[in-house]
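In the design runs reported in the main text, the only information available to the sequence generator was the tokenized backbone. The following block is the verbatim input for one such run; it is reproduced so that readers can re-run the procedure and compare outputs position by position.
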């Protein structure tokens, strides 16, 4: 990763100072850095749905269609556990104790298949620092299928990417499980990301996690569910594809949307301060809707999350309005759309990136 420096702008520093003061004043009588009753209710709700749907897979009376539906619910609710519990745990905002956060983080990702430690390292050390910066944000690394940034090289196939992108997105989770995780673990290119974590711990946790994951999603159903191995594997693949699409719908447009900035440094310096950089590269969707926060674990409030990652996501509802008002007052960007508008904006962006 190429480390960059953010611009030292007094005007932008004054803006962020005012924003932090207003947020702190709004939340000063609350314990905001760790999970509250809303946080635990939501996470335990999805955990209950996930556990019940998984237990139904082993009922003798279950037909194929019901088995497949229960498998989809199991995978989807498992993803929402990751949104509700795992994301906050990776930022140490679920518990005061870091070890407890690490344990919750591990188990919250069990049905998703993406190694939680590797994901957490790249999410915090790369993406949260340098969102949308080529060569510094791992999430915007070049890929062989889609041109997501104007900094990526153009190829003729990209003219059609707005049409074939949904098929690529269906394999997002499977690609992470079977390819990306292994690259992040074994490639020397990502040593910067793993710095400070003993290799023995990385390998041990990786192996244990993958054993748990494959046992849960494939081995136990193959051994104890009353269906053929081919049908169970097909259920796994199709449920993963469906879950990947939900994952992409909620997240891909928060950074890859029409109007997003993809900053390139002048020498070692980026154009804006860290806080204003986050606003130029993030988009909220339905930020003031309770159902959206419930489903996405606060990921729909992307500006709040990037600006205040040390605050538990159940508090974002109380600071979105402050962010909107303060950015307007100080003439800073704030991107906000409905979920449908964000997805249209994403495909508009794909279409633009498809032009040479």
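Verbatim output:
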């Amino acid at each position: 990763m190429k480390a960059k420096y953010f611009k030292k702008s007094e005007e932008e520093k004054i803006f962020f100072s005012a924003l932090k003061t207003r947020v702190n004043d709004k939340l000063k009588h609350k314990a905001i850095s760790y999970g509250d009753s809303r946080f635990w209710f939501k996470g335990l709700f999805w955990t209950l749905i996930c556990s019940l749907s998984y237990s139904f897979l082993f009922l003798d009376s279950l037909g194929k269609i019901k088995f497949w539906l229960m498998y989809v619910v199991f995978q989807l609710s498992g993803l929402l556990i990751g949104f509700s519990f795992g994301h906050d745990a990776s930022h140490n905002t679920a518990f005061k104790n870091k070890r407890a956060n690490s344990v919750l983080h591990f188990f919250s990702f069990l049905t998703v298949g993406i190694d939680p430690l590797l994901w957490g390292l790249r999410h915090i050390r790369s993406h949260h620092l340098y969102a949308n910066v080529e060569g510094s944000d791992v999430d915007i690394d070049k890929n062989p299928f889609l041109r997501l940034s104007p900094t990526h090289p153009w190829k003729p196939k990209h003219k059609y990417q707005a049409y074939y992108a949904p098929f690529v997105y269906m394999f997002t989770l499977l690609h992470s499980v079977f390819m990306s995780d292994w690259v992040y673990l074994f490639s020397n290119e990502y040593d910067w990301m793993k710095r400070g974590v003993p290799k023995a711990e990385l390998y041990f946790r990786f192996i244990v996690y993958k054993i748990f994951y494959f046992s849960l999603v494939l081995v136990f159903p193959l051994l104890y569910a009353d269906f053929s191995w081919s049908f169970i594997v097909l259920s796994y693949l199709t449920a993963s594809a469906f879950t990947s699409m939900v994952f992409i719908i909620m997240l891909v447009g928060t950074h890859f949307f029409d109007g997003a900035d993809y900053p390139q440094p002048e020498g070692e310096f980026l154009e804006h301060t860290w806080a204003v950089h986050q606003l130029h590269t993030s988009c909220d969707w339905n930020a003031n809707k309770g159902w959206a926060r419930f489903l996405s674990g606060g990921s729909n409030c992307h500006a709040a999350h990037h600006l205040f990652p040390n605050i538990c996501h159940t508090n974002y509802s109380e600071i979105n309005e402050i962010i909107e008002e303060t950015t307007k007052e100080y003439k800073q960007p704030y991107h906000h759309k409905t979920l449908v508008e964000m997805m249209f904006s994403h495909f508009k962006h794909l279409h633009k990136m498809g032009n040479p």
